[in-house]
Each structure stands twice: as C-alpha cells, then as structure tokens.
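OP here, attaching both records as promised.
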Amino acid sequence: MASNTTLVPEAREAMNRFKMEAANEVGVNLKQGYNGDLTSRQAGSVGGQMVKKMIEAYQNSVK
C-alpha cells in the first residue's frame, strides 16, 4: 500500500482542509490539486505544522 493512501476514504476532505489550514498558518500558499512548485522547505513547514497540531490535539485529549 502506498504511504499516501487514505485508509478511511471519508477522511480525505478533512485531511485536505487540515493541510490547507496548516499551510495558511505557516504562510504557504497552497492551491487545490497539484502543488509541485513548492520548495522542499515550504512543503516541510506545512507537514511539520500538521504534525505539531496533531501532537497538541493528542496531548489535550490525554489530559
């Protein structure tokens, strides 16, 4: 299975919204569809922000 396959198809739209929100927070202009013009730094900052928010959500749920 590919690593970018969504295990729960219904979650695809929520993940896209989450990605757009994270990109907005770090100042990266994402567009719908292909974003191959992003630099590695921009893509990494979006992914890093997503991970940061997921960790924060988990920590808040454990409290």
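Record two, same layout:
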Amino acid sequence: MTRPVRDIQNDIRLLDSEEKAELLRNLIADLDGPADPGVERAWLETSQRRYRELVEGKVAGVPGPLVFERLRSRLGE
C-alpha cells in the first residue's frame, strides 16, 4: 500500500534545502524520462552551423543587452 501524499509532503518539509533540491532534481529527471541519444548530437551540429554562419557573415549577431531588452519588452517588464 502506498503512503498518502500528505504524509510524504510532511516528510519533505523536514528536509533541509539541499535535500529538497536533490529530491526535485530526481523527480524532474523521472518525469523527463530517458534522454534522447540524438539530442546532444543535434545541439552540437546546430551550434557549429550557427557559428559558421556568423563567421561567414551569413547572419549578424545580436548583442546580449539588446536581446534582454527585447525580451523584457515582450514580457511587459
């Protein structure tokens, strides 16, 4: 028989911050499921392609402060 969620929540409240953070990381990893083996490869290929495009002048970079300014504007902050 499983323990009621309320009991588990009470036990979690007794944990220190580090233990709670570790528990959260583990729970999130369980929810995410197994890692897709092709993801790392795809990110590497994408980042290399984007870097080449910048170096070759095919695209222009956007300064970081401008990126954040645009994001804040979109989020209404």
